[in-house]
Amino acid sequence: MSMTPSSEHDQPLKVGYILKMFPRLSETFILNEILELERQGVEVEVFSLMAPGDGRFHGSLSELKLTIEYVLREKPESYWDKISKFPPGIVPSMERWQLAVDFLREHSIPKELDMLLRAVYIGAEARVRGVQHFHAHFATISTRMAALVNLLYDIPFSFTCHAKDIFRETVNRNLFRELTDHSAFAITVSDFNRQYILDHTPGIDAAKVKRLYNGINMDFFEVPTDRSPLNAEPTKIISVGRLVPKKGFDILLQAIKLLSEEGMDLQVDIIGDGDDQEKLHQMNQRLGLNDKVRFLGALPIEEVRRHCSEATMMALACIPDADGNMDALPTVLLEALALDLPAVSTTLTGCPEILAEGTGELVEPGDARALADGIKSLKSRVDSKEWKIGSARSRAENLFNLSTNVATLKSHFETSARRG
Description:
CATH topology of the largest domain: Rossmann fold
Helix content: 40-55%
Number of helices: 16
CATH class of the largest domain: Alpha Beta
Shape: elongated
Number of domains: 2
Low-confidence stretches: 1-8
Mean pLDDT: 94
Radius of gyration: 23 Å
Largest sheet: 7 strands, parallel
Oligomer: single chain
Structural class: alpha/beta
CATH superfamily of the largest domain: Glycogen Phosphorylase B
């Protein structure tokens, strides 16, 4: 009896992710996205251009079904040898190589031979493994690599752009436009981001630039049933992020000093590490806040969740960096929403899209007095029950549900794969 072969649509969608470094403790949104794609039946292949740097990982990493291939910088001879071992017809013709070289030289992309050989290798592996679409995060080396693979092999790609790859003064707008032109589509994570891209990238195809919020695993960030009353004393403030200028931790410390002088009973936990760690520790000591502020270092997401669940509110003092870089859609604010935790942040970028409809307080960035007043105002709203229990969680479920938002991303992948 003859059997009709199954169509390509009966086969699971296979997507390749090209990432600068995976896994990375500070990029939980990428791990969550891939995990959810796997839960929704997508086969994912990850090509990481660097080995992980800090040795600390989130526990949910163990849930991944995929294996990670590290395509690291090596001597050209090593990649020539690897490429020569692929079956005939896999590696593209030299005309294709020339297209990729022209792209590298047009945009003065450094280490062009290394980029080219790694792109040839990644594309060949993708062909062997049946990858139908590539996705990258950040419009930097990972997206450039995806564009090279596309020029060499015609495998469609997309990318998600976030913050430093959009806002920095050093962003090459012509290269950004061309990456978008070559892509099947480009995702960005807030309406603010999308409008900024359109305003600052002459000639870009607006139809290709799509806003899709990062999502939060609503099951993982369940509202704790044993949470202490939010109006309990002392007021426990949690702040989470890398200790870098754009997070505004110096502004937060100044605000805590003001509130302390005004007699507010406070306990502040700061989670994260980074280049400004020593400077912030010294500032904390200079302000006399050692008995009120604890620096807990970088923690896995499971520990972050526990500390947030024990807090009264979250405070995130986002400010613009000296080079124009800004936070786009802070993941920790999304996590606060999911935990139904009151939050105060600044009016920067996508923060107003998170803390809308009375779910938090927004203040002008870079103003310690305004941040202190925002914390007091939020505390007053909580104490008077003006802040509605359940409102933040409801907003997270409606706009930032990981399952819903990844399903949308998956549909974009499927459309691209069919066209490809």
